[in-house]
Amino acid sequence: xxxxxxxxxxxxxxxxxxxxxxxxxxxxxxxxxxxxxxxxxxxxxxxxxxxxxxxxxxxxxxxxxxxxxxxxxxxxxxxxxxxxxxxxxxxxxxxxxxxxxxxxxxxxxxxxxxxxxxxxxxxxxxxxxxxxxxxxxxxxxxxxxxxxxxxxxxxxxxxxxxxxxxxxxxxxxxxxxxxxxxxxxxxxxxxxxxxxxxxxxxxxxxxxxxxxxxxxxxxxxxxxxxxxxxxxxxxxxxxxxxxxxxxxxxxxxxxxxxxxxxxxxxxxxxxxxxxxxxxxxxxxxxxxxxxxxxxxxxxxxxxxxxxxxxxxxxxxxxxxxxxxxxxxxxxxxxxxxxxxxxxxxxxxxxxxxxxxxxxxxxxxxxxxxxxxxxxxxxxxxxxxxxxxxxxxxxxxxxxxxxxxxxxxxxxxxxxxxxxxxxxxxxxxxxxxxxxxxxxxxxxxxxxxxxxxxxxxxxxxxxxxxxxxxxxxxxxxxxxxxxxxx
Length: 485
Description:
CATH superfamily of the largest domain: Tetratricopeptide repeat domain
Helix content: 25-40%
Number of strands: 23
Number of helices: 10
CATH class of the largest domain: Mainly Alpha
Oligomer: single chain
CATH architecture of the largest domain: Alpha Horseshoe
Mean pLDDT: 84
CATH topology of the largest domain: Serine Threonine Protein Phosphatase 5, Tetratricopeptide repeat
Structural class: alpha+beta
Largest sheet: 7 strands, antiparallel
Low-confidence stretches: 26-30, 64-71, 94-100
């Protein structure tokens, strides 16, 4: 056999060229009209012989016929001639019919069935073509190359698919894969059928079961799957950013109202802020082919922690030596306080450093407010500071005014200062450094409207040594003292 496409010479038992795979037609086209004409001619000859002769070969004679010797001889000659001619016609007809039997054998052979199948396929008669391809598979030689059988099975599956019988097409593709696990075309056709049938579960399982990495990678774009959440469902005491992800090619859509997400929902592009209260996040992954995976849901409850009550030192009590009032402020909160007995809030004084103790009785209240706006219980401390010294707070203030007038910082003992300014001084708190106790004196600038503004100048008087100091506050709220002169 000679391949008309590549010229390869091979045994005539193959229907495809083993070199290039070209289909070979070795059976002549069958013409039913020729067979019908031959059969009609034989029937006509047979009818003519039956009309002229009896079954014994004698010429049929009617009762009115006159027997003439000369005529009888002529008739016998004609009868012999007709008989011979009839026999010849019968022999010719038998030979022709014998040839037709050979044609019929070829017609029902493997290659003959293939030819008829391809004709039916070309004419759009897919169901008939599929049945013929199935017959051809039954007749195919057992030692035919695997690629020939696989090619024929792929043709059969495609034909069943075109005929609308997807179940048979699926079965044939699965047979092909069983014989040739690396057949990408079979896998692709199988996946497309599952896709058309919207059987996405089988589609995922089929691709996931492929052991050939190259084939699996080629079909991986059909895979779906659940969306990955960066935070699992639960109760939390803080806000957080929720991230959604997938290791496949496609998009993620989500909802926050409890409804199922679709491609018309919000597309995920940035982390989702989960704030105080209850939140329900539902998300779905949709691959590049528009196939949606299963919807995943996570629920969150965020309730901000209530800070513990502030811890204040020293404790409430009576004191003769002043102590610095200190509050420990943990991360995530701010401390606020009041000195008038009211409960503090975010509009109260912000605590940032140690506070000095006031002379006499005082009440301080503290509260923590978290960065989420949650307030702690209020802590209250009460102090009674009574200092025993060689001067009173009033003595300390008068001595300071006299000293400022002496240096020219004041014009007189009434607080008038150069530039038309006026100052007043208040001593209502105390501090200590080492073993020494000091009255703290604050300076205020008085306005014409009667308001007082605290200046940066702070002074101190040693309650025992009666020496005047300039007081400088450190970053931690504690003082250091330098002699006034």
